[in-house]
Amino acid sequence: MEIRIKKNGAEAFVDALTKAFDTDYIRDCKEYRLEIPEDIGEGYISAYDFDYGMSLVYFHCTFHEDLTVVFTAERVHPLHFNFCVEGEIRHEICDEQIAYQLNPLNGSISANPSECSQTMHISPNIQIVHTNLQILRSEYIKKVDCDLEEMHSKLTNVFRDQEGENSFLHEINYSVPTAECIKHIAGNGYKDLVRSSYAEAKSLELLALQLKQFADDLDPETRFVTLKRYDLDKILKAKEILLSDLQNAPTIQDLAKMSGVNQQKLKRGFKQVFGKTINRYLRDARLEAAKYMIMDGKSSIQDVAERVGYSNRGHFARKFREKYGLLPKDALQANSIQMSKQKEKN
To answer: Which residue windows are coiled coil (predicted)?
Structure first.
C-alpha cells in the first residue's frame, strides 16, 4: 500500500492515512489519534500540530502488508527529524538518490528540494515504534531567527533554506536521554490542553537534544562514535551496577572491571549513551533517590543521606540544594505540610 502525503502538518498526515485505511481519527485539542483497523494491522499513530510550524508524528503499530508513505507535500517540504525506537524503516530522499535504513537507536535530520519527495518504507509484520518531528522552516525561523547565528553553520544553512532548495541528511545514533524523552511523549497520560502542552514541551526538548547532538557530532572531541552491541551491553551493565547499590557505589576503576570494559571506553561510552559523566550520573541518581525518600516521609535526613551514599550530611545538603533549590529539611517540611493538607481534605 502506498499513501501520498500532499500537505504539511500532523492533521494532513493523519487525514491521508484515515482515508487510505477507510476509518476515522479522534481529535483531542492539538492531537490527532488514529487507531489502526484490524484488517490493516494493529496499534496506533498519534500526531500533533504545534505553533511555529512544528509537528510531531508517533508510530506504535504493525502492518499486515508493506506500507510506503511518500511525503510529496506542498511547494516547500519541512525539515524532518527521525527517531527509530523499534523495528526498521527504509528512508529515501529524492527517488533513492539518498537512501538508508533506520534501526533502533538510529536517527536522522533530513531535508529535500521542493521538486523531490521523502519516502518511508515499512515492512509487514514488524512492530514499528518511530517518532517523526517536522519543522516548517519559514514558520519556525520566526521564533529562533536570532539564535541561528549561534548554531553550527551547516545547520544554520539548513534552517535558513526556507524555500527548500537543497537536500540534506545527517545520520545519528541517538542517546538514552533522547530515548527517554520519546518515552515521555509516548507515555503522556494527561488530557486536553495539559496533554498537548506537555507533548509540545517534550517535542521542543527532543529538538534541543537532537540539535545538541548534531553540534557534538561535528566536534572531534565530543563526536558520537558508534558503539558495537557488545560494548553497549557492557555500558548498560555498568549503569545497572551503579544503581544497584547507591550507598556503596564502586570506583570507576572497579566499575570497569565489574562490567568488563576498559576505563577509557567506559567513560567515553557512558557519556555518549547517557549524556553525563559516570560521576554526574551517580550523583543525580543518588539525589533523585533521596528526593523520593524524603517525599515518603519515613526516614530522617541523616538516614536518607547515608542510604544514598553520603557520609557527610552537610555535603549531602549542599548537593541537594544545588539540584533542587532547597535544603533537604525544607523539602521534608514542605512535604509534611502538603501531606497534612491532603489528609484534612480526605
So the answer is: none
Q: Give CA–CA dist 82/129, Å, rounded.
A: 11
The CATH code of the domain that includes 204 is: 2.60.120.10
Contact criterion met (CB below 8 Å) for 43 and 62: yes
Average pLDDT by stretches of 10, the chain with 346 residues:
94 96 94 97 97 96 97 85 95 88 92 89 97 94 78 85 88 86 92 90 94 79 62 89 95 95 91 88 95 90 95 95 93 80 68
What whole-number distance in Å separates Cα of residue 332 and Cα of residue 314? 16
Q: How many domains does the chain have?
A: 2
pTM of the full structure: 0.75
Cβ(210)–Cβ(81) under 8 Å?
A: yes
Q: Which of 217, 246, 262 is the last residue of a domain?
A: 217
Taking Cα atoms as reference points, which of 213, 33, 51, 27 lies closest to residue 135? Answer: 51
Query: How far is Cα 46 from Cα 26, in angstroms, rounded to an integer?
Result: 10
State the residue range of the domain holding 282. Answer: 229-342
Q: What is the per-residue pLDDT across 284-327, written as a single tens digit (0 to 9) for each?
A: 999 999 999 998 888 899 999 999 999 999 999 999 999 999 99
- Are 166 and 235 part of one and the same domain? no
User: Tell me, what CATH number does 257's domain have?
Assistant: 1.10.10.60
Nearest to 93 by CA among 130, 121, 55: 121
Domain boundary among 158, 189, 217: 217
Q: Cell numbers for 37, please give them.
A: 483497523
Integer-rounded Cα radius of gyration of the chain:
23
What DSSP string describes 31-55?
EEEEEPPTTTEEEEEEEEE-STTEE
Q: Say if 210 falls within a structural domain.
A: yes
Task: State the amino acid at position 337 in one-letter form.
Answer: I
